[in-house]
Design brief:
mainly alpha, single chain
Length: 150
């Protein structure tokens, strides 16, 4: 298994190669969770830019939520305990990012950490997005390590 830093570096590599933030986080964990990379890319492809550039929930986070679903998710409506447990984990990851950045909404993050000009010129990736990909990947790695120890 990759180390935390190797996982973060891989997510950042995917992002700097041009993958969406959501793809980059999910792809960094694909081998660990047994997910085919082509499927991972396609599943997460529409979540970048705050979900299809709607600038809603941060794509790095939605990629992280997908990982949590793969690791700790549930399959049927009768699995209410598992459903509530994984929803709690989603909120935990969301809170970690919110505590760090004050926001988890893509548009608000861009307003806070970039400029309209940089967003237009797609330089916001360097201003904030690469940091969000790295930090979300690190938080998620730690969460998965703690849950595997329990």
């Amino acid at each position: 298994m990759m180390t935390k830093q190797e996982t973060i570096d891989l997510a950042v590599k995917y992002f700097t190669e041009g993958h969406a933030c959501s793809q980059s986080v999910l792809l960094a964990f694909a081998d660990r969770i047994g997910l085919d990379k082509t499927i991972a890319k396609r599943i997460s492809s529409t979540f970048g830019g705050g979900m299809g550039r709607l600038r809603s929930k941060c794509g790095a986070l939605t990629g992280g939520f997908m990982v949590l679903g793969m690791v700790e998710g549930y399959e049927g409506p009768e699995q209410m305990e598992q459903k509530m447990a994984v929803y709690k984990r989603v909120r935990e990851l969301n809170k970690k990012v919110e505590d760090q950045y004050g926001e988890t909404n893509c548009n608000e993050l861009l307003i806070k950490y970039s400029t309209p000009c940089n967003v237009t010129e797609r330089k916001h990736h360097q201003d904030i997005c690469v940091k969000l990909v790295a930090d979300t990947t690190g938080y998620l790695y730690d969460m998965l390590e703690v849950s595997s120890e329990e």
